[in-house]
Amino acid sequence: MDKLQCMEAFVRVAESGSFIKASEQLGVTRSVISNRIQQLENFIKAPLFHRSTRSVRLSNVGEKYYRECAALIKQFEILADEMAHATSKMQGRLRIHMAPGFAIDYFGHLLTIFLKEYPDLNIDIVVNDRIIDPIAEGFDIVFQMFPPTGESLIERKLFNVNRVLCCSPEYLENIQNIYKPEQLKEVPMGYYSGYPTRNRIRYLEEGEFKEMDIHIHVLSSSVHLLRDFALSGGGVVCLPTLVAHKYLMNKQLTTILSDYPLSNYGLRAVFPANSKNLSKIRKLLDFLIIRLDTIPSWDIELIDAKYLSEKVKFFQ
């Protein structure tokens, strides 16, 4: 019995509330996690969890030992990370959760360069639009558009995420020309369900931001589905520029109301303040920040092509 591995499995299950999530975080099968928990329960001669088909929760004994075991595992991981860092070698595993908008078409080539510099580092990347708690779900770092909610989480902004209203040129030919934001009320739109204001847009007019209700025809958790909806002539959609950029530049999409820029967000890295992998996280973030400007290269291209207002250069 490897007591350290068994305690680590216990801590992961306790924090995630799931044997399956714990197995994903540790890179082993669910049966291995179950076996390690059982060995630990046999060792202390008491159950650590109350199990049901829907949930896993700590028993009284489990609650008693969880904090001590979590602290012990954390100290061991920090020590192991410091030892690896002392040898000037970046090794081990970094588990990343990333929004598709940045992952698709952008992050892959950056990752190639990064891993050439640190070949002993293994990267596990989950691509999903969902907003998560990295501690509860066992990720070292999360790349997302919205601020973290946990007090023990650190965020580091990488670049502005600007958005545009766009559609296919063919669709634009079949609707009334739109010169003012108020005209959007007459146009069915495709909109990302993850935006905090699900049925409103916020736009800049005469130096101040104004808000307006819109008619949402298609609401989706996928900006890529909305992009494809627009490409096929489905209607007007609101897309992040990093998703729309290529299709605007090759004229498969065209912007509307570009003189009324929409409020923006920021792609930020979110990670636990006491992560065992802080040195790896900082190396990755330093690498990305050197290569990504606050106003990213794809936005500069769109500004030069008049698809995006120059006013976004002054957005925070």
The chain-level structural class is: alpha/beta
* Tertiary shape: elongated
In sequence order, what are the helices and strands, one letter per element? HHHEEHEHEHEEEHEEEEHEHEEHH
Strand tally is: 14
Task: State the low-pLDDT regions, or none.
Answer: none
Q: Over the alpha carbons, how many angstroms does the gyration radius reach?
A: 23 Å
Summarize the amount of helix as a percent range: 40-55%
Distance between the termini: 54 Å
Biggest sheet details: 5 strands, mixed
Beta fraction: 15-25%
Description:
The strands form four sheets. A five-stranded mixed β-sheet has the order 4-3-5-14-6, covered by helices on one side. A five-stranded mixed β-sheet has the order 11-8-12-7-13. Strands 1-2 form a two-stranded antiparallel ribbon. The chain is elongated and about 75 Å long. The mean pLDDT is 88. It contains eleven helices and 14 strands. 41% of the residues lie in helices and 24% in strands. Strand 9 and strand 10 form a beta hairpin.
